[in-house]
Design brief:
Bound molecules: heme C
Number of helices: 6
CATH superfamily of the largest domain: Cytochrome c-like domain
Number of domains: 2
Radius of gyration: 21 Å
CATH class of the largest domain: Mainly Alpha
Number of strands: 0
CATH topology of the largest domain: Cytochrome Bc1 Complex, Chain D, domain 2
Distance between the termini: 61 Å
CATH architecture of the largest domain: Orthogonal Bundle
Shape: globular
Length: about 130
């Protein structure tokens, strides 16, 4: 009987630890987790974009310092006419709209991206982009 009580207490401890951990994870996702976002970048963006300061333009422009930058402003990169005329400031909100469907926000853009199925990926990615400064 005493044995049974002890194991009940132990598993209650595990459950509350799991709850605490779960709450912590949810909070991190809300604010965006930049460390996770770096992986999201590697998986989804790096094929076309570099992220390091002074990095080469690839198929798309270097994205170092993109948060807060104006659209079409990376020096030495040849944008589409659509992006040159877009007049967007890359705030976190505008980035989220753009990444959900680049051509919906900037008709005629040469960036093709299907958007994220997981909103956490998007929030984490934008938190990561915000560290590139
Ligand atoms: C298949 C290649 C490709 C992929 C993948 C891609 N991009 Fe792009 N991206 C481009 C191209 C090309 C442009 C230039 C668009 C234009 O000039 O119309 C661009 C432009 C941009 C711009 C505008 C930059 C500026 O200076 O105005 C942002 C922001 C951006 N991409 C972010 C991302 C992010 C974040 C990802 C990953 C989620 C991503 N892109 C994935 C090709 C890509």
């Amino acid at each position: 009987m005493a044995q049974f009580k002890k194991s009940t207490m132990v598993s209650a401890g595990i459950v509350s630890a799991a709850l605490l951990f779960g709450a912590g994870t949810a909070f991190a996702a809300e604010a965006g987790d930049a460390a996770e976002g770096e992986f999201v970048f590697q998986d989804n963006c790096e094929i076309c974009h570099s992220a390091e300061e002074g990095g080469a333009h690839k198929i798309g422009p270097n994205l170092y310092g993109v948060v807060g930058r104006h659209s079409g402003a990376a020096e030495g990169y040849t944008y589409s006419a659509a992006m040159m005329g877009a007049g967007i400031e890359w705030t976190a909100e505008n980035l989220a709209t753009f990444l959900a469907g680049p051509a919906a926000m900037v008709p005629g853009t040469k960036m093709g991206f299907p958007g994220f199925s997981n909103p956490d990926d998007e929030a984490n990615l934008i938190a990561y982009l915000d560290t590139l400064k």
